[in-house]
Amino acid sequence: MKTFDFHRARDVDDALAAADTTGGSYYAGGTNLLDLMKLGVAQPSSLVDIGRLGLVEIAATDNGGIMIGSGVTNSAIANHHLVRTQYPVLSHAILSGATTQLRNMATAGGNLMQRTRCPYFMDVTFPACNKRQPGSGCSALDGFNREHALFGASRSCVAVHPSDMAVALSILEAVVHVRSREGARSIAISEFFRLPGDQPERDNALLPGELIVGVELPPSEYAYHSWYLKVRDRHSYAFALVSVAVGMTIDDGTVTSAAIALGGVAAKPWRLPDAEAALVGNSADAATFRRAAEVAMDGADALSQNQFKLDLGRHSVLRALHRAHTRR
Q1: Mean pLDDT over residues 255-269, rounded?
Q2: Number of domains composing the chain
Q3: CATH code, domain with 305
Q4: pTM to 2 decimals?
Q5: Is residue 92 part of a domain?
Q6: Which of 27, 48, 67, 182 has its CA 20 to 30 A from that of 258?
Q7: What is the 3-state secondary structure (H, E, C) of the chain?
Q8: Domain range holding 38?
C-alpha cells in the first residue's frame, strides 16, 4: 500500500478545505476504499477522515420525506423506523447486501461512491482496464464477462455498479445533496451515476472535492406494494447478477403508478420506463405482470457470456412484481 497523509476533519468546512488543499480522498467507513488501497487499485496521496462530521441522523423533512445523513451506517438506515415503514424497499435492499459487520461500518455516502467489482478493475495484474487506467482498453469485452452490463455500456467499459441501495433509491427518486467550497447543490439520483461512454474512469457526477452530505427521499407512494429481489450465485455476501426494485400503487385492482429499476445490468441503476408503462392503467394481475416482464429487457445488448441474464431479468421482474403485489 502506498504511503499517504491522513487528516481527521473537525467539520464539513474543514473536510472540504483539506480535500481541496491536498487533493485527498474522503474516508468514512472504508469498506470499499480500503480494499482498493490494499489491492493497489486506489493510491490516494492523502485521506480526509469524515467520520466525525455529525452527518449521522435520519430526520423527517417538512414535505413528508426523510433526509439521511451521508455518515449514517447502512445498518442504521435499514433498521430505522421511518425507513422500515415508509420506504421498506430501501430497507430490504440494504439488508440484501454484504454482511452485518460490513453494514455496521458502511455509510450512505460511501455506498453511493463504491466502485465496480469487475475482476479486471480489481486486479492490477490485468493491464487493460479503462476504468482503472484510461486508454488501456477493456479486458472484459473479449474476456470473462458473465457478470457484466446489458445496458448503457460502451466499447470503453462494460462494468456494472454493485450497489443494492442505489437500485432502491432509483425507484424512490432520491436526491443526493453535496457540498464543496463553492457551495451546495442537489443531484437527482437519475443523474448522479454516469454511463461509461468514453470516460469510464468517472463513475458519477461529483466534481473534484465535492462531498456527499445527505440523501433526501421524497414522500413515497410505495410503502405498501414494493419489493427488492436480488439474484446471485450464492446467498451469502455476493453481488447481484440481476436485482430488481419494484414499487406500485394499486387502486381498486388497477395499477395507478409504478417504478421498476434493475441492478447488476449497467453502470447505474437501470429504470424500465416501458415496463412501467405496461403496468399503469391495467389490472394488477398475472397477465399484466407478464406483459411488463416481457418488455423489461428490450434494448439489452448481451455479451458473449451473459446472455442468460436476459431471461433471468425477465423472470426476476415478474417475480418481484408478484411479491410487491402480495406484500402487505
Answers
A1: 98
A2: 2
A3: 3.30.390.50
A4: 0.97
A5: no
A6: 67
A7: CCCCEEEECCCHHHHHHHHHHHCCEEECCCCCHHHHHHHCCCCCCEEEECCCCCCCCEEECCCCCEEEECCCEHHHHHHCHHHHHHCHHHHHHHHCCCCHHHHCCCEHHHHHHCCCCCHHHHCCCCCCECCCCCCCCEHHHCCCCCCCCCCCCECCECCCCCCCHHHHHHHCCCEEEEEECCEEEEEEHHHHECCCCCCCCCCECCCCCCEEEEEEECCCCCCCEEEEEEECCCCCCCCCCEEEEEEEEEECCEEEEEEEEEECCCCCCEECHHHHHHHCCCECCHHHHHHHHHHCCCCCCCCCCCCHHHHHHHHHHHHHHHHHHHCC
A8: 1-54
pLDDT at 279: 98
Whether residue 91 lies inside any domain: the answer is no
